[in-house]
Amino acid sequence: MIQKITFSVLFYIKTDKKDSKGKSPIYYRITVNGKKVEGSINSKVLPSRWDGKGHVKGTKEDALSINSHIDTIRSKIYAIKRDLEDRGEFVTAKAIKNRLVGVDKRHKTILEVFNYHNKQMKELEGKTYASATVKRYETTLNHIKDFIEHEYGTNNMYLKQLEYSFITNLEKYFKVVKDCNHNTAIKYIKNVKKVINLAILNDWLDKDPFLKFKPKLKRTERTFLDEEELLKIEHKKISIPRLEMVRDIFIFSCYTGLAYIDVANLKPDNLVTGIDGEKWIFTHRQKTGELTRIPLLQQPLKIIDKYKDHPKTAIKDQLLPISSNQKTNAYLKEIADICGIKKEISFHVARHTCATWMLTKGVSIETVSKILGHSTIKETKYYARILESKISKDFSKLRKEINSSETNPESQAS
Hints:
Layout: E1 7-13, E2 24-32, E3 35-45, H1 61-86, H2 93-101, H3 110-123, H4 131-152, H5 164-177, H6 182-201, H7 227-235, H8 241-256, H9 260-265, E4 271-273, E5 279-284, E6 291-295, H10 298-306, H11 311-316, H12 325-338, H13 348-360, H14 365-372, H15 377-407, H16 409-413
Antiparallel strand pairs: 1-2, 2-3, 4-5, 5-6
């Protein structure tokens, strides 16, 4: 289908922008289907020397030079219009100007935009973004490089080549070739979507390939420790110092709800006296930026006091001497084995444990939400559903025991 357009190019001067010598800048105006864009040609002229038809009057050297420059720009504009038409691309005033000044969406590639995004993120590492987040986007970029090579047999793709099929093929690639589960695949795809949105906001891409793709995570069961398991770990005598320290900081998180990165970021200044005269933690969650105020129970207070003179806390100006996330999670697996707990434990289990433990103790869901630093109470309600499920299972077991005793009165009597 041939695109019908109205098209014109005009050169004019802006008399309201005269310089100290009285010269006005020369501008071009491109109009396509009534929509206009303009730009400077970086030349100036006295208004009295402008002929009003797009040229400088006279045959002086400066007039000839400027007129030649104007004619060259006009020729380029017409050539760009013809090229867009020949390629079957939509001709717009903005598209022509972008090509003219070198901001051509055709020449932006997905890897170029991804690198641009990751570079910005890297510069904000430790301020706006956690190191783990920066690393995740670097990993996503490597996956995209491999996917383009695998699926399309090339080492890059222009943004304009991205279609809905690119996204669906990418989902299949993560699940089949990389053997990712559904949620992992969707998380990678959401990272790609963020980069594509950046391209759209910068006018490097007109059509959103994600427009009809709705990535949804599947609800998964979150592991948490019940009170018996929590106390078993908390009171276990551990003779290995590295495990004891990790256990203590894990327990600290179980009673405060802080994520690993937030515990690692804690400094002595975050320990303050609250309005009740008791000790509180005042901090911002790195993931959401939400301000979190946590009143401290005796368990976390004892742990803070236990490690206040630890060498690592002084050297790094930390409230607690936390190990790397990788080591911490590896040590927690050892601790679970020592304590005879069969659940797969990571540091994040402490956060889930805190939420469910507080709810079972009658703390309101609104308070739990504030302590966890959730941006909406909807996030916290998931833990309430976990408890409802647990209560249902417990009562189901209780009903069976009651029914069993009623049908076997002799066993009850004995």
